[in-house]
Amino acid sequence: MAEPPVIVLVRPQLGENIGKAARAMLNFGLTEMRLVNPRDGWPNPSAGPAAAGADIVLDRAKIYETTADAVADCEHIYATTVRKRGVTKPVVGPDAAAELMHSQEGRHAILFGREASGLETEDVALARHILTVPINPEFGSLNLAQAVILTAYEYSRIGREVNADQGLVQPTADDEMLPPAPQAELDGLIEHFEKLLGPRGYFLPESRADATRRTLRSVLTKPGWNHLEVRTLRGILSTLERDPRD
User: Fold this and answer.
1) Nearest-angstrom CA–CA distance, 57 and 30
2) How far apart, in whole angstroms, are the C-alpha atoms of residue 40 and residue 98?
3) Helix crossing, 209-221 with 183-197: angle to 10°?
4) pLDDT tens across 162-214, in order?
5) For the whole model, what pTM was predicted?
């Protein structure tokens, strides 16, 4: 299995953006960040708060003088840019790049340029592929962290397809859902509704009463209420049942 890609930030300008990029990386299981000649030096006190807990990425970040030094041990290099800048190379999207990262042995590195101007021509020349995100041609403006998270997400997504045991999980509220209420509690709720609705003529005409009761049961059964929800509904009915003067 190929190693996870290295994220290389070339001449990044703001510590906050480095921290946000680290946060984006760790969300999708990437931990190796390399910095090429960051403008404000390193370490940068602004990076930590912006990383929002992704300290492992910042603590392990390595500093290089040149982009060539930063990718010297990598066999597969991708330059993220919206234009080729006169360099003829294969162009891939984040999904196709992720497939290559999972299928080709060796170290993979993704280059991201400075916030204001992107990668320079000499940086792009080091790459084997141009990595371009399909984007609105009327507004092609991604910030550094957004570009990092798009590529990191695609790497993670393709990884789940290739290897179901990759370790990343889909967040879901189902883990915290209570089981449906027992049938006896649900029957009590339905009976409570019928008790309140009957005197008000809801089940008239008599010829349609059974069908109306079946429909009411279907409506109240469908959501799969848990016992707390059933208790809440019973409380609402009991409140409506009381004389307002009480």
Assistant:
1) 8
2) 31
3) 130
4) 775 554 555 555 545 678 888 899 899 999 999 999 999 999 999 999 999 99
5) 0.68
Q: In whole angstroms, give the CA distance from residue 92 to residue 23.
A: 24
Given the candidates 3.40.980.10, 3.40.1280.10, 3.40.50.360, 3.20.20.80, the CATH classification of the domain at 6-162 is 3.40.1280.10
Q: What are the domain boundaries of the chain?
A: 6-162, 175-241
For residue 147, give both structure tokens. Answer: 């570009």
Q: Which residues contact 34 (CB under 8 A, 6 or more apart)?
A: 6, 7, 8, 9, 61, 62, 63, 64, 70, 109
Question: Helices 183-197 and 227-241 meet at what angle, rounded to 10?
Answer: 20
Q: What angle (nearest 5°) sits at the alpha carbon of residue 229, between those of residues 239 and 176?
A: 155
Q: Is the pLDDT of residue 87 over 50?
A: yes
User: Hey, what are 176's tokens?
Assistant: 């915290």
